[in-house]
Specification:
The protein is mostly helical. It is built from six helices and three strands. It is about 60% helix and about 10% strand. Strand 2 and strand 3 form a beta hairpin. The longest helix has 16 residues. The chain starts with 5 loop residues before the first helix and ends in a 5-residue tail after the last helix.
């Protein structure tokens, strides 16, 4: 069980953010990061990303997991794929999505720890 206090988590997030911002050496990189955060900064998209942290899933599975319509899930998947957060592959009549960057599950774990853990 994780025993970090909320203050420790916030400090970790702040230091991670500082470290993450340090390597940006151009406005283009910052714009790209802002675009990706905008893409993932929607509740259903966060739910989709959480569902994909365990591995790839087809659209039909994601519809069942997130409890939204097929067309709505597909629209959000397209935004995530266009932003580079997700990759997709087609197998016959099914389309499978997976997280494109192996660091995203770590980001999702940090989001869960900060926002989904009981507050102390």
């Amino acid at each position: 069980m994780n025993t970090r206090s909320k203050q420790e988590v916030v400090q970790l997030a702040a230091s991670s953010l500082t470290a993450a911002l340090a390597p940006f050496d151009s406005a283009t990189q910052l714009e790209t990061a802002a675009w990706v955060f905008k893409a993932i900064g929607e509740p259903l998209r966060l739910q989709i990303l959480c569902a994909l942290t365990d591995g790839e899933r087809c659209v039909q599975d994601l519809v069942a997991v997130v409890g939204s319509s097929h067309s709505n899930v597909s629209r959000h998947l397209a935004v995530l794929q266009q932003s580079g957060v997700l990759d997709r592959r087609r197998d016959a009549s099914k389309v499978y999505y997976r997280i494109a960057d192996e660091r995203i599950p770590g980001l999702m774990a940090l989001v869960r720890e900060i926002f989904c853990s009981p507050r102390k």
